[in-house]
Amino acid sequence: xxxxxxxxxxxxxxxxxxxxxxxxxxxxxxxxxxxxxxxxxxxxxxxxxxxxxxxxxxxxxxxxxxxxxxxxxxxxxxxxxxxxx
Length: 85
What we know:
Blueprint (H helix, E strand, L loop, with lengths): L4 H10 L9 H10 L7 H4 L3 H9 L2 H4 L7 H15 L1
């Protein structure tokens, strides 16, 4: 996801993080670690938007099938629409 700028930008915008498109490495690390422990980066950054992103795209728990989930896809689209209105 982070290698496709349009997709990365779309997802970040849908979570109100559009100004963080420069932080690919940080976001990738957050997504890789997931949210299985309070010590994970998503929790330690103390940003509810990043935490919500990490919970939605929990690659640590769900693997590659995360992005093919219709619930995830619908949720991201709905978030994007809500953020842009």
